[in-house]
Specification:
heterodimer; A: mainly alpha; Rna Polymerase Sigma Factor, Chain: A; Arc Repressor Mutant, subunit A; 8 helices; 74% helix; 0% strand; B: 247 residues; alpha+beta; Phosphorylase Kinase, domain 1; seven-stranded antiparallel sheet
Chain lengths: 165, 247
């Protein structure tokens, strides 16, 4: 299971947004994983990531309650995703701005995006890890990408504006 | 399929999560709808941009040690390879007996031996990860990795470069498995690593999963290959085929 330490840390780091808290949360999650090791069914990576994810959200609830509340509210609003995201191409995107924009996403959307794009997990695995139906995974990803596209457009313009002025 | 429905399923389509019949329907919509096509291109571009440029936060080196320290004793990985090394040292005294056992180990194709080997590869893999010692010689150049390994092993492992096929070589290390020193080549596939354990000898092919890792083995030109990776079995098989037929 320790072979999945990299994935576990990456998820915890993206959810807590700093190394120190990620390590603390991970330590607790790993203890829990070892205690419940016998409950492991199927693949180890989604199972471990589910434990890490839950530890992160417990941590967020007691340390960043505003963030969780805000992201739940966001989810209720039903905007159209039909337009798809803004244009964003690997060649032109500024690495730092992209990372900042992902960091600024509400936790639920950030988590869906990290699990999908960085861990390359299937909707089924993401649903299992985040404990929501597959349909919710799909709508969260759609929302995450739309929000990311919007904020990239805004911050890219802002940063260009600063350069020119 | 109605346009609203097509737009809704676009993410699943781009993510490769639609079933084949829905994919075909959606592709028909895409063919007739330039705006939808543009949206799907934007989604693909964004996904590629994130995969290429978003940080993949690597676990700090001290973290594995810290976690291991805090675990209850019975869960700490055992060290069968170290035990085996001690056993081999003792066997030096009973050289004849050791030779017989070794020959049996080499020839044995039954499941118990395979299972033992898999447990051993799992432990070896786990230890390498924990100790942060996946690579002894870090190089993408097979002309650097091969001589380094050959100089330290009683055999010369074949080292091929599969960067063109999307499996770049990351390096190699020495390890101990199946009762002998073995060569381990490290290949990368996106953020996944593939370990290829190589030693002389031939045995039957196998493909299986254990503890979330996938294994595949085959023999070629008098060498036994065991691949260990968290890559999905399909891609690992693709890699095995490339490795098996490379010149």
């Amino acid at each position: 299971m320790l072979p999945h330490l990299g994935a576990a840390f990456n998820l915890a780091r993206w959810l807590t947004r700093n190394d120190h808290d990620a390590e603390d949360v991970l330590q607790e999650a790993m203890m829990r994983a070892y205690r419940y090791f016998d409950s492991l069914r199927g693949e180890a990576r989604p199972w471990l990531l589910a434990i890490v994810r839950n530890a992160c959200f417990t941590w967020l609830r007691s340390n960043r309650p505003a963030e969780i509340a805000a992201s739940l509210e966001d989810e209720k609003e039903q905007a159209s995703e039909a337009e798809g995201p803004e244009a964003l191409t690997a060649r032109d995107v500024d690495r730092r701005l992209l990372n900042e924009a992902i960091s600024a996403l509400p936790a639920q959307f950030r988590e869906a995006l990290v699990l999908r794009e960085l861990e390359d997990l299937s909707y089924k695995d993401i649903a299992r890890i985040t404990d929501v139906p597959i349909g919710t995974v799909m709508s969260r990803l759609a929302r995450a990408r739309r929000l990311l596209g919007e904020s990239m457009r805004v911050i890219t313009r802002a940063s260009r504006g600063e350069v020119h002025e | 399929m109605k346009p609203e429905q097509a737009a809704k399923l676009l993410h699943a389509y781009v993510d490769g999560e639609l079933d084949p019949s829905a994919s075909i329907e959606l592709e028909a919509c895409l063919a007739g709808d330039p705006a939808l096509r543009a949206a799907s291109e934007r989604l693909r571009a964004m996904s590629a941009a994130i995969r290429e440029k978003a940080d993949y936060h690597a676990a700090p080196e001290r973290l594995a040690a810290r976690l291991l320290e805090s675990l209850p004793d019975e869960r700490k990985p055992r060290a069968p390879a170290a035990l085996q090394r001690r056993w081999l040292a003792a066997a030096g005294v009973f050289a004849m007996l050791a030779a017989v056992v070794f020959a049996l180990l080499q020839l044995a194709g039954d499941r118990r031996d395979e299972e033992r080997l898999i447990q051993e590869l799992l432990s070896t893999h786990g230890r390498a990860v924990l100790a942060g010692r996946m690579i002894d010689i870090a190089s993408a150049d097979r002309h650097t990795v091969k001589p380094w390994l050959s100089a330290r092993l009683p055999f010369s492992p074949p080292v091929v470069d599969l960067a063109q096929e999307g499996f770049p070589l990351a390096g190699g290390r020495l390890d101990y498995a199946a009762g002998r020193p073995v060569a381990v080549l490290l290949y990368k596939r996106r953020e996944h690593a593939i370990e290829a354990f190589i030693w002389p000898g031939a045995r039957g092919a196998a493909r299986l999963s254990r503890d979330g890792l996938n294994f595949e083995s085959f023999s070629r030109d008098g060498m036994t290959y065991w691949l260990v990776s968290d890559l999905d079995p399909r891609e690992l098989d693709q890699f095995a085929r490339l490795l098996g037929k490379s010149p």
